[in-house]
Amino acid sequence: MAVAERTPVIVVEDLTARFGDYTVFEHVSFEVYAGEILVILGGSGCGKSTLMKHMIGLYKPYRGRVLVHGVDVNTRNEAELRRLRQAIGVAFQGGALFGSLTVAENIALPLREFTDLSQEDIDLMVKMKLGLVNLAGFENFLPEELSGGMIKRVGLARALALEPTVVFFDEPSAGLDPITAAELDQLILDINAGMGTTMVVVTHELQSILTIAHRVIMLDKSARGIIAVGDPRELKEHAADPRVLAFFRRQPLSRLTKDA
Description:
The protein contains 10 helices and 10 strands. By secondary structure, the chain is α/β, with parallel strands linked by helices. The protein has one domain: Rossmann fold. It has a 6-stranded mixed sheet, sandwiched between helices. Strands 2-1-4-5 form a 4-stranded antiparallel sheet, covered by helices on one side. The chain is globular, with a radius of gyration of 19 Å. The model has no long low-confidence stretch (mean pLDDT 91).
């Protein structure tokens, strides 16, 4: 990304996450820039999903804060919270669709809650979002009638319903076959390029990371924090930390340290 475009949309400041006496991570600080696709990665148990939930305000930090467009996601100001919720879209890992509602009704939910649009306008917006994720004509299907990849795309359409400036993805490729995963990766890239949407993606799927990420931050369970930041393609070849190389090269850490 060009230097002129590096405007922080999200600022994470000295964030510490604790549950009881257990510290998941501590002193985590980074920024997410306008129009960027930032991937949060790392091994199991390192705190990837916990970090995302702090960033969207589902969890309150033990220490530190998260700012989105300059507003603390844990603010108690109702007007600011409403603006934040409209600026942020979330595509959950399993789609998080309501099984008793049709595809159209699922996508329409945020439009009904946060806008005063007429039914006619809502129907039009739903059709537009379904077209965006290549599911035109599926308005009246129920979630149980869809494949796993289609469910994820409906979840993405709902996340985009309010045309947010920031979209979070939790393991978007999890459980998908390689072709469907590749199609979803391309859809993410197309939306990012076409709409300029800032995206934060939590995943450990290596091929997706190398395909979609402009930049990554890597968390490590033992370090309780960030051990690498940068272009994943450069980290794969030149990272100094053997834990980072082991991840990107899909090799046991013991083998890398032994070869070194």
